[in-house]
# Entry
Amino acid sequence: MKRLNDMDAVLLYGEAPNLHMDTLKVAIVHAENSGSLFTFEAFGESFEERLRLWDPLRRCLIEIPWRNHHAMWVEDSEVDLGHHLPTAFASAVSRRHVARAAANAHRTDGALS
# Structure
């Protein structure tokens, strides 16, 4: 376990339902240039295989009761790839679709609007 540093704690405790303090990373992959069938599912499988190499995505946040201290990171936790790889991006075929998916990343149904 590792305690949150001060900056991570500021971001965590500064969040509100209408103010998200997390960030979103978007990769645009031109699959037609890969020479093989490269689907969103194939990307997800490849991402999952490499997940153990990326420490931040293998951690889970554990709150401390009554917030007596900063929350803690638990290493080697189960990862919800559905949360980290929203399916809304799978159908994004243009920059406009990517922008809409990014704007709606905090929606629970994953739909593009």
Observations:
- Residues 88 and 110 are 5 Å apart (CA to CA).
- The helical segments are 6-13, 40-50, 81-84, 95-103.
